[in-house]
Design a protein that fits this description.
- Helices cover 75% and strands 3% of the residues.
- The two termini are 32 Å apart.
- The protein is mainly alpha-helical and 348 residues long.
- One of its GO terms (molecular function) is protein-phosphocysteine-sugar phosphotransferase activity.
């Protein structure tokens, strides 16, 4: 029973990733191209022309729909077409602030809601109803019921402890500031990678931005090193361990590489979703190492952006680069020794 459930979930996650990939590629490539021509500013990388701003907006649109697509097609794999729209709506909810605490849970929350939607809709499809009601089920009853019940469950039950945890994390990080640099760097690095743009990552961002406002830039340096490590690590892994990835994954590796160069952590999400038990620990450890090395060597990032693209506005350029490189190689090594090779027919 457990094996069957796990296989169903793996199939659902792979389906979600395969339908999400074009959105990731479009978003990542357009954002990378537009920001690569920009200049560092107080708000991060600022684009150089209206055309590049338009290209950036298109890329942001691709990233905005990425998580709803993931949730939608996870649910679709489990329960078919009636689950698609409700899960996309709930995936959008997960990826945007909602509720009194304005909590967002990112791709992890979207995956959870995709699975819950899939199994809830699958159960709804077993109901014994009249033929008239059955025609209304997929277009009226199931979508409304699913979004209402699971949406309220998410807002009033699931998001509440997450919001409380984020508040606690900010307070804990505040107590660490000025204490052990290595501990703070490890925590910031790990938080950056654990949900790749989700609430834990955003908590680290908020903490480092608050310190930047007070003229303290080293924690931001650790954070901006760490944001680049997950996509760079999975990209390099696809380059050197080709037998561990499908052709689709290897093609995505190049896109993830460019996203890593400009500090877009989300480039690693498709790889983490497909093999969470191996990829996620690897990138968390690598990012933690990179963050700690940045803090120990007092690397300071002067803008709220990451990746090698901001190197001109970094104090401690050599260690910024070395910390990013070492953290990336740590993650690549862990993936190399833990991720098995695929069957020959899957690699082609």
């Amino acid at each position: 029973m457990e094996k069957t459930l796990w296989k169903d979930l793996q199939k659902a996650f792979n389906t979600g990733v395969s339908y999400m990939l074009p959105s990731v590629v479009v978003g990542g490539v357009f954002i990378a191209l537009s920001l690569a021509t920009g200049k560092p500013g107080e708000g991060g990388m600022e684009v150089s022309s209206q055309f590049m701003q338009d290209l950036l907006d298109l890329g942001v649109a691709g990233f905005s729909i990425m998580i709803p697509l993931l949730a939608g097609y996870i649910a679709y794999s489990i329960a078919g077409k009636p689950a698609l729209a409700p899960a996309m709506i709930l995936g959008y909810v997960a990826n945007n602030p909602i509720g009194s605490a304005q909590v967002k849970t990112g791709f992890l929350g979207a995956m959870l809601l995709g699975v819950l939607t899939g199994y809830f809709v699958k159960w709804c499809k077993t109901w014994k109803v009249t033929p008239t009601i059955r025609t209304l089920m997929p277009i009226l009853i199931i979508p409304i019921l699913t979004v209402f019940l699971l949406g309220m469950l998410y807002i009033y039950v699931i998001s509440v402890p997450i919001g409380a945890a984020m508040t606690w994390l900010v307070a804990t990080l505040g107590e660490l500031q000025g204490g052990s640099a290595i501990v703070l760097g490890l925590i910031i690095g790990a938080m950056t990678a654990v949900d790749m743009g989700g609430p834990i990552n955003k908590t680290a961002t908020a903490f480092t931005l608050a310190l930047m406002a007070e003229g303290i830039y080293a924690p931001n340096g650790a954070h901006r090193i760490a944001v680049a490590i997950p996509p760079l690590a999975v990209a390099i892994s696809t380059f050197i361990d080709r037998k561990k990835y499908t052709k689709e994954d290897r093609d995505l590796g190049m896109s993830a590489f460019f996203m890593g160069l400009i500090g877009i952590t989300e480039g690693a999400i498709p790889f983490a979703v497909k093999d969470m038990k191996r990829v996620l620990p690897a990138i968390i450890i690598g990012s933690a190492v990179g963050g700690a090395l940045g803090m120990i060597n007092n690397v300071e990032a002067l803008v709220p952006h990451g990746g090698l693209i901001i190197l001109p506005v970094v104090n401690g350029k050599l260690w910024y680069f070395l910390a990013m490189l070492i953290g990336t190689l740590v993650s690549v090594a862990i993936i190399h020794f833990t991720k098995p090779n695929l069957a020959d027919e899957e690699v082609k």
